[in-house]
Amino acid sequence: MVQMMNRSFVAKSSVSASLSLNKSLKIRFHNRWSFNGGSRIVLFPSNSSSLVHKKRSCVRASWMATSQIASSVFAVGTTAVLPFYTLMVVAPKAEITKKCMESSIPYVVLGVLYAYLLYLSWTPETLKYMFSSKYLLPELSGIAKMFSSEMTLASAWIHLLVIDLFAARQVFNDGLENKIETRHSVSLCLLFCPVGIVSHVVTKALTNSSTSNTNNQCK
């Protein structure tokens, strides 16, 4: 009897000691019954591993959702501009090509998509990265940090698609107006827009020079 009382006293003291050492720890008591030892009390800390896994899964799900949005918009935007380039290269003189290139719908759609991605990627540190120098000018290191996010990269890609398509349309329309070959320049605008513009300027200069020489010879 004395032995049982001592054991009970030791158990109570160990529980009270653990409680005094971890005052901020909340303990949940579960009364479980088994055939081997009768009923027993099991202690579980409030910050159990299940809660930690739950928080991690929420963060992971949020990251996956953001990554999926960025990937989907990247694919949709890239696919959306390809038909316009195809028409300008394959059928530059067709009426459907002229009507499609006169339309402002693709620029409005891509512009709205860009604004949506810009809203999702905007953080309080965005302006800090954009104007990181003491003269409030962009620096390469700050821009690199800003574009470390997939969402920011996707928005920048949509921005480039809009600018490239607009420049390609300008090259295409100028070629139709002045009867200049623009297929190679339009193709370059898809991936290397500045190079495509330079190509069109050079092509236009060579075409005009050739035309003027032909006219002089005819005279």
Describe the structure in your own words:
InterPro entries: ABA4-like. Keywords: Membrane, Transmembrane, Transmembrane helix. This is Neoxanthin synthase. With 219 residues, the chain is mostly helical. It has a domain of 146 residues. The chain is 74% helix and 7% strand. The protein contains nine helices and two strands, in the order αββαααααααα. Strands 1-2 form a two-stranded antiparallel ribbon. The longest helix is centred in the N-terminal third of the chain and has 42 residues. It is elongated, with a radius of gyration of 34 Å. The termini are far apart. The N terminus is likely disordered.
Strand % is: 5-15%
Q: What radius of gyration results from the CA coordinates? A: 34 Å
User: Mean pLDDT across all residues, rounded?
Assistant: 76
Q: Give the oligomer, counting copies of the same chain as homo and different chains as hetero.
A: single chain
Q: What is the global morphology?
A: elongated
> What is the helix tally?
9
Residue runs with pLDDT of under 50 for 5 or more positions: 1-44, 48-63
SS-derived structural category: mainly alpha
Topology order in helix (H) and strand (E) letters: HEEHHHHHHHH
- Strand order in the largest sheet: 1-2
How many strands? 2
Q: What about the largest sheet?
A: 2 strands, antiparallel
How far is the first residue's CA from the last residue's CA?
132 Å
Classify the helix fraction into a percent range. Answer: over 70%
Pfam families: ABA4-like
Protein name: Neoxanthin synthase
Keywords: Membrane, Transmembrane, Transmembrane helix
Transmembrane segments: 69-92, 104-122
